[in-house]
Design a protein that fits this description.
seven-stranded mixed β-sheet, 544 residues, binds phenylalanine, single chain, 33% helix, 19 helices, BirA Bifunctional Protein, domain 2
Length: 544
């Protein structure tokens, strides 16, 4: 208001140091006063009520000791003030003086008071020699405190600086002119147009706060991919680099037939129990699969075939048609493999697998012209990364739903060695170099390899399922990272694949490598309502 009023009467302010601090009689020459003025100027500037120019100046400010002297007087004045006037009282000895004014003041003050001729000795004590003094140091410091400068000049300022009573400060002062919206009253400018302003028409006469394009604004919070999405993307790219095609996996609901029967999982297998699998109540049953295939699958289960004795256990069509939430994406793989085998069966079903296969002949055929087949089989490398559901007891590492990474390779004469070699490449692409394989059991991956040799008529080598273990350097132990195997002939041959077509596959969870990568030891901090978006955004792994 002072600035506006001064501008109103004087037209402009040549030097803001000439303004008189409201409520006092001294000019606004101090550092702090100019800072306060600057704040006011900027707020008036944003309303275009003033414009101003900045000038720099060296000013002086009191140190803590200087401020004390400005308040209480110099050391020498304090020494002088406690002494009796010569001849008018008991002289004070130096020990007593220290007690009265403190060690420091007594020490510094005595010398200066002597030099100024203010005090003298009488016997062993000290007395005042003059009745009145002028404490120049205090007066000078008071002047500096108020004006930031000293009229008596640079020599005294230099002395005070040497005594560490003042310090130099870069200061500013301002020349102020009226702005486009100058007025003597500060109307609060509008910051926003409101519906009320539009209906009342007050928007026409309101003043508006100028938009500050220089303002830094609120930091925007960038999005962050969920760790599962990041790792899924990475694994997907690894698959694509190795020439894999992604399978469609949108059907979370499958029938018992595709999830289990087609994979030669016996109808009595415990994995099919209510305790392990979520069944649908409405609708509860699927439409029947293609009849001929259904019959072949049923036959291999009940009576055997394709070199297998079968399970010779009862078969219930009801078990086959039950709808469930898929417990593994191998159900989707089964659909794809079934379609892939269509050509070989010579059946005329809609073939939408072309984009998933690799030419008409397998790589092995290309090397061995004599075994070139005309059965229509096309090799394929397929993968999927999608959600599966299991009725698990939930704990730190298990949820009722998780993501499964699945890979399937179909080609002629593949062996377990191909699978192992492939696994090493696959896991090394994920940064896992040390892998070990342990024989395990899967109902659908227990193939035998028939080798014909000169020394033996025929060797039948059992090709077990393999659990895959990776060495975890942080935990310093081997942890299970996946499950794999060669699909059984009982699964592949009813589909219609030629006998020499082998399919190997493997599956792993997406959550486990993600937890290892992000150093998460409780799955619930990764998935579900306890996931902290903030932690994820701030996780260094998000940046890579
Ligand atoms: N379906 C298996 C699982 O859920 C993984 C797997 C896929 C194993 C393909 C072998 C072949 O663990």
């Amino acid at each position: 208001q002072l600035i506006l009023d001064t501008l109103d009467t004087q037209g402009s302010i040549a030097d803001t140091r000439s303004l008189v601090v409201p409520g006092t009689s001294h000019a606004a020459t101090s550092h702090d006063a100019q800072l306060a003025i600057l704040g006011a100027l900027n707020s008036l500037l944003s309303r275009e009520m003033v414009t101003y120019e900045t000038n720099e100046v060296i000013s002086h400010a009191l140190t803590a000791e200087g401020a004390q002297i400005a308040n209480e007087g110099s050391h020498e004045a304090r020494v002088w003030s406690v002494l009796p006037l010569k001849g008018q009282g008991e002289p004070i000895n130096p020990g007593q003086l220290k007690k009265e004014v403190g060690d420091e003041t007594a020490k510094v003050g005595q010398g200066r008071a002597f030099k100024n001729g203010w005090i003298g000795k009488e016997g062993a004590g000290l007395v005042k020699l003059v009745a009145e003094i002028k404490d120049i140091t205090q007066l000078d410091l008071k002047e500096i405190e108020q004006t930031g400068n000293l009229s008596s000049g640079e020599k005294v300022l230099a002395d005070l600086r040497k005594r560490k009573l003042i310090a130099q400060k870069k200061g500013q002062w301002f020349a102020v002119m009226k702005g486009a919206n100058f007025s003597t009253s500060i109307a609060k400018p509008e910051t926003d147009l409101t519906a009320d302003m539009l209906t009342s028409g007050s928007w026409k006469t309101s003043t508006y706060k100028k938009y500050n394009f220089e303002a830094e604004g609120i930091p925007t919070s960038g999005g962050a991919l969920h760790p599962l999405l990041k790792v899924r993307e990475e694994i997907r790219n690894n698959f694509l680099e190795m020439g894999f095609c992604e399978m469609p996996t949108q059907s979370f609901v499958e029938s018992g037939f595709w999830c289990f029967d087609a994979l030669f999982v016996p109808q009595q297998h415990p994995a099919r129990d209510l305790q392990d699998t979520f069944y649908l109540s409405d609708p509860s049953h699927s439409l029947p699969p293609q009849e001929a295939y259904y019959d072949r699958v049923k036959t291999v289960h009940v009576d055997g075939g394709f070199g297998s004795a079968g399970y010779r256990a009862p078969w219930q069509p009801e078990e086959s048609s039950k709808l469930l939430l898929r417990t593994h994406t191998t159900a989707s793989s089964a659909h794809m493999l079934y379609k892939l085998a269509a050509k070989c069966r010579g059946e005329d079903i809609e073939d939408d697998t072309k984009e998933f296969t690799h030419g008409a002949a397998s790589t092995k055929d290309a090397n061995d012209k004599t075994t070139a087949k005309v059965d229509g089989f096309r090799p394929a490398k397929l993968f999927s990364i999608d959600r599966v559901f299991r009725n698990e007891t939930m704990d730190a590492t298990h949820l009722a739903e998780f993501h499964q990474v699945e890979g399937v390779v179909a080609d002629r004469n593949l062996t377990l060695a191909d699978l192992i070699g492939f696994m090493r490449v696959f896991f090394s692409k994920m940064g896992i170099e040390q892998v070990r394989f342990k024989p395990a059991y899967n109902p659908y991956t227990e193939a035998s390899l028939h080798i014909f040799s000169f020394s033996y008529d025929m060797l039948i080598l059992d090709q077990p399922s393999l659990e895959i273990f990776a060495f975890h350097p942080m935990l310093n132990k081997w942890v299970e990272v996946g499950n794999s195997g060669m699909f059984r002939p009982e699964m592949l041959e009813p589909m219609g694949f030629p006998k020499d077509v082998r399919v190997h596959g493997w599956g792993l969870s997406l959550e486990r490598p993600t937890m290892i990568r992000y150093g998460i030891n409780n799955i619930r901090t990764l998935v579900g309502h306890k996931t902290s978006i903030e932690n994820i955004e701030n996780s260094p792994a998000v940046m890579f």
